[in-house]
Specification:
Blueprint (H helix, E strand, L loop, with lengths): L5 E3 L6 E4 L5 E3 L1 H13 L7 E2 L2 E13 L9 H13 L4 H7 L4 E10 L6 E5 L12 E5 L7 H17 L20 E4 L12 E18 L2 E7 L4 E12 L15 E9 L7 H9 L7 E2 H5 L9
Antiparallel strand pairs: 1-2, 2-3, 4-14, 5-6, 5-10, 6-7, 7-8, 8-13, 9-10, 10-11, 11-12, 12-13
Helix pairs in contact: 2-3
């Protein structure tokens, strides 16, 4: 996807894509904020916990200028990050402290009966999330929940087609299964996977494996992961909290507003036996849904008959 120009609009504290002087398209960041506000108002919640075979990948994504990158190689960068993980550190914090660009984590989950994956972006190591110290992040693709999201996607595809070779098909890359299969990659500026003008883009898989999806709602995800780093049942919940002064835009002078955030952590109670979840993920057995309060009281899931 080619780099898209952005500019600030007076009175608005978010960026917009400039389509023309008369018409402006809100950015993904702004539409995500609107979508999360909509999700937070949802009052319908699933009371049963299901057991759906899935798979997952956990990747690190980074954008680094060549002069700040001593590796210039996905293989070498991945080896460096895996060594940091082995030492018990958060690998993206290590590379950022060394001045090697900006990084985040992407968790992608594919329910095996679905045509596409869904995902979560984290700003620190998700496997370190606990009930006492949750990891902050946000879900991917939520801008599609609001009407303007389709307008933004249509315009981005049109802009990309203007710069693509004649006859080359262009589609938004948001949820293609290809992105779950990337083990390690290093893309130059302007490549289809890198929208920046001057920085190189990294994508590296650091964990993967089967998973069992229990619940997926607009404001809540409940899933058991069977990887090396992510191992066990985790929650991802949307919450509203008051922003601290340092989190406010410099132009904001009114009362302190609330921000919407997703928080990810390993379940303290209600963990399912991992050997049982492995059988479910492989499709060896099927389990009947269980009411949430029964799981917390220690009731085990039963096989379907």
């Amino acid at each position: 996807m080619p780099y898209l120009p952005v500019k600030l609009v007076k009175g608005k504290h978010y960026k917009v894509y400039v389509e023309s002087k008369e018409k402006m398209i809100p950015s993904k960041a702004h539409l995500l904020s609107k979508a999360l506000g909509k999700a937070l108002k949802e009052e319908i919640h699933v009371e049963e916990i299901d057991f759906i075979p899935s798979v997952f990948v956990l990747q690190t994504h980074g954008w680094v200028s060549p002069e700040a990158d001593p590796f210039k190689s996905a293989e070498k960068m991945k080896k460096f990050q895996l060594a940091a993980i082995k030492a018990g550190k958060d690998p993206i914090r290590v590379v950022e402290k060394k001045g090697m660009g900006k990084w985040h984590y992407d968790l992608r989950i594919w329910k095996l009966t679905a045509p596409t994956w869904f995902g979560v972006t984290f700003f620190s190591a998700p496997w370190k999330g606990t009930a006492e110290k949750k990891v902050q992040g946000t879900i991917k693709g939520a801008q599609a929940w609001v009407p303007e999201g389709k307008k933004l996607e249509k315009w981005m595809i049109e802009e990309a087609q203007k710069k693509a070779p004649p006859g080359e098909p262009i589609v938004e890359r948001k949820d293609r299964l290809f992105w779950m299969k990337v083990k390690q990659a290093y893309w130059p500026p302007g490549a289809p996977a890198n929208p920046t003008k001057k920085q190189w883009a990294y994508m590296m898989m650091i964990d993967y494996g089967p998973a069992v999806l229990h619940r997926r709602e607009a404001d809540f995800i409940d899933c058991t992961f069977l990887g090396n780093l992510l191992k066990g049942r985790y929650y991802d919940r949307l919450v509203a909290r008051k922003l601290s002064p340092e989190e406010l835009p410099v132009t904001y002078k009114k009362k302190v507003p609330y921000g919407l955030f997703y928080y990810f952590w390993k379940a303290k109670k209600g963990q399912f036996p991992l050997d049982l979840m492995e059988k479910v993920a492989r499709g060896d057995i099927e389990l009947s849904p269980v009411e949430q309060f029964k799981v917390l009281r220690g009731v085990k899931p039963a096989k379907k008959v």
